[in-house]
Amino acid sequence: MSDTLRITLAQLNQSVGDLAANVAAMLAVRESNPDSDLIVYPELMLIGYPPEDLIMKPALIERAASELEKLARVTADGGPAMLVGSVFIRDGDLHNGVALLEGGRIAATRFKYELPNYGTFDEKRYFMPGPLPEPVLFKGAMLGLPICEDIWHPDVCRHLAELGAEIFICINGSPYEIDKDVLRIDGVAKRRAIDTGIPLAYLNRVGGQDEIVFDGASFVVGPEGALWVQMPDWEESVVTTVWTQTARGSGSRWRCEAGEEHELAEHPEDIYCAMVMALRDYVNKNRFPGVVLGLSGGIDSAICAAIAVDALGPDRVWCVMMPSRYTSQESLEDAEGCANMLGVRLDTVPIAPAVDAFGDMLAPVFTGKQPDLTEENIQSRIRGVTLMALSNKFGPMLVTTGNKSEMSVGYATIYGDMNGGYNPLKDAYKTTVFAVSEWRNAHRPKIGLGPDGPVMPQRIITKPPSAELRPDQKDSDSLPPYDVLDAILVGLVENEKSVDQIVAEGHDRATVSRIERLLNIAEYKRRQAPPGVKLGARNYGRDRRYPITHGFRTG
């Protein structure tokens, strides 16, 4: 029994499948906080989240059970107890759960009740729901342990409250989406706390995992909805919260002393940080020495270069300019200016010899045919082959630079500018690219390793976008203005609206119908595109899963 509890919230990165690294990270936090009563780690901390089909390997389940037992034995030293998220088998069923490790043993386990099965989540593929959980008694406090999705519905918290829970500790693996931090606090956590009259500590993980990224931003809210603690976003953080028991009528209640209140990144810094962290963890966790990318003098490659420098530092970023006869002097100057501002290596590899060689090689079979999109795509594919050759020869991962607007309508060359290992802009519409470029030219992100000043010549942002694959080419020759295109795409992709609905909002019917057609026929390209970080609610791959072959049209 105690009138005071010191609960340490460990907002950590995770390595999916690397149990040894995750155990080492947990033990390091415990060793650094010997005066804590309880240390809490994020959802599935032991194996990493999300494990996807890796969880189907029996060897992983067995190793997780073994490592959890070892962690439990560590607590026999009388030091802090631990709340560790892991996987558990009960009666032949696999559960996503949390274990209280105390006094050298696994003192209690609780399983996730609400299994999310939408968007990026497909937990019903792997787990069985546990029963409605009961509170766990720990040093005189009744702890309710809802797990992530459990607090997005009222039933679990109400059930725990009815059984006497006094503090909610909710471990999470909640991926970043635009405005998700506001939704977590105001739309979910405060509602559960106010509804039950019980304070809630919300602990999230941080870091990138393939196409999703976790922003951290953990917090504690009181039973009246007040924000007691706000941990930072986009970085690991360990905070010890102090809880005291105070009288309340004939009973008592636990309150958390006011603690840190970090300001969270606002738009568009949050988007930029998501792209930086996702690329950083993808490159580092897959053990690439650095990245290489084509720097064309355009805005997409320029902001990708800036993201890469902020993620990895300038010494690990290699930019390559690959001019053709259609490349303007302006683009050459802007690419050089961008590289100088970022402090990265820039090499120039002209593609004219390869273009001419392909022309000569194909001339006999192209006889009688006029130059068209084919010749434009050959240039793009030559650039893709060149960059992949550098990646193969020297080891850096190729960064792909196409944005969501282009990927949506197929304005990208498969096996050309779509080549690469990762795309930071995959879920960023062109209007978002403009916004984050303007922001980065005036600000340095909180997690950035790049320069304080501008990262690209302003002309890159203001000049009309062009692929420069034919004389005087502009994107607007093939596509509507990007503000129009993106508004239509948001309707079609993010909101699943019909052509009629989008036309009713003031858009031209022929344009909307054309964009819907392009969106549908480009699906096969997107299936072959590299992974890229999820930013919104409907990214390609994890969220929006359309058949390549189908005949349905809305207009």
From TrEMBL:
Q: What GO molecular function annotations does the UniProt record carry, in alphabetical order?
A: ATP binding; glutaminase activity; NAD+ synthase (glutamine-hydrolyzing) activity; NAD+ synthase activity
- Enzyme Commission no: 6.3.5.1
One GO cellular component term noted in the UniProt record for this chain: cytoplasm
Q: What is this protein called?
A: Glutamine-dependent NAD(+) synthetase
Q: Is Nucleotide-binding one of the keywords?
A: yes
Q: Which residues bind ATP?
A: 294-301, 401
Kindly state which reaction or reactions the protein catalyses: deamido-NAD(+) + L-glutamine + ATP + H2O = L-glutamate + AMP + diphosphate + NAD(+) + H(+)
Among InterPro entries, the record links this protein to: C-N_Hydrolase, C-N_Hydrolase_sf, Gln-dep_NAD_synthase, NAD/GMP_synthase, NAD_synthase, Rossmann-like_a/b/a_fold
Q: Which family does it belong to?
A: In the C-terminal section; belongs to the NAD synthetase family. Belongs to the NAD synthetase family.
Annotated ranges, domain CN hydrolase? 5-246
Q: Does the keyword Phosphoprotein apply?
A: no
Listed A to Z, the keywords are: ATP-binding, Ligase, NAD, Nucleotide-binding
Q: Catalytic residues?
A: 43, 112, 148
Q: What does this protein do?
A: Catalyzes the ATP-dependent amidation of deamido-NAD to form NAD. Uses L-glutamine as a nitrogen source.
Q: In which pathway does it act?
A: Cofactor biosynthesis; NAD(+) biosynthesis; NAD(+) from deamido-NAD(+) (L-Gln route): step 1/1
Q: Which HAMAP family does this entry report, sorted A to Z?
A: NadE_glutamine_dep (MF_02090)
Check the record and name the CDD domains matching this protein: GAT_Gln-NAD-synth (cd07570), NAD_synthase (cd00553)
